[in-house]
Amino acid sequence: MAIIEVKKVNKTYNKKQVLKDINITFEENKIYGLLGRNGAGKTTLLNLITDRAIVDSGEITINGENVYENDNALEKIYFMTERTLYPEDFKVKDVFKWTKEFYSNFDSKYALELAKKFSLNINTKIKNLSTGYNSICKIINTLASNAEILIFDEPVLGLDANHRELFYKELMENYIENPKTIILSTHIIEEVSNLIEKVIILNNSKIISSDEAEELLDKAYTVSGLTENIDKFISAKNIVNIEEITSFKSATIIGNLTNEDKKLAEDLDLKFSKVELQKLFIYLTEKEEV
Ligand code: ADP
Fold this sequence. Notes:
- By secondary structure, this protein is an alpha/beta fold.
- The chain has helices at residues 42-49, 71-74, 92-102, 108-117, 131-144, 161-177, 213-218, 227-234, 259-267, 277-285; strands spanning 4-13, 16-26, 31-35, 57-62, 65-66, 77-80, 149-153, 181-186, 198-203, 206-212, 220-226, 238-245, 248-254, 271-273.
- The chain folds into 2 domains: 2-215, Rossmann fold (3-Layer(aba) Sandwich); 219-289, Alpha-Beta Plaits.
- Adenosine-5'-diphosphate is lined by residues 13-14, 18, 36, 38-44.
């Protein structure tokens, strides 16, 4: 069991409130997408969860235990960050050995298999790795850690398309073989939208959505047709985006479609379509901070 509970958490840096009254539960064995624009506070939230930073107020627990200076709780998590925690003089194979010291369930055989798949030379020193291979080394370390909770912060930065594909494939295989809680923090949504079961969107210091990906998408729809008809349909609705070309308009709306809506749309000859996660995310987070 590995449940993370974030309760009433606030965090301020230099008088700027980065996280405001955050409440969220990460259930066990689910894949979460933590989505937000750059600077939304994703890394800050993950740093708080892994006790790399301290909450101003509120509480974060893993299986009911507060994470603050709690090695027992923290060793359930492997957090892949941009920061490199091991000496740069280490070779890749030394990193694997080093990780095993801290994560006794680290699977060395699996790490070597992954290194082969990604064509990562285990005899290369960390300081001589390219940005992409540096990320790959960390990805492998994380996947092989066998921790109950894996957290990836912007994991694919610097990776080419083939390696990104391979990462998503290996992540899914790892999850299917050995279910665990996975948090993928990213602003590149398109690529992860098929992987994630739950979506958490951070915007302006707050969580604006934490839903099953399917449910979130079911809450929004796009309606298109003649401008004058669309205008009749969308009055008093929660519109998140409007696009207009000549006399045609399409509007994206958050809300459930009632039978009345459906009837009206039929009368007005309007068409409905689904919204992609990436687009919905952009609409929901478009407004700049004030
Ligand atoms: P994200 O991961 O979503 O891009 P971050 O959590 O990195 O966002 O940053 C959110 C905000 O908090 C930014 O304005 C950033 O400058 C600020 N911030 C994050 N960490 C620190 C820190 N250690 N010291 C000062 N400000 C910080």
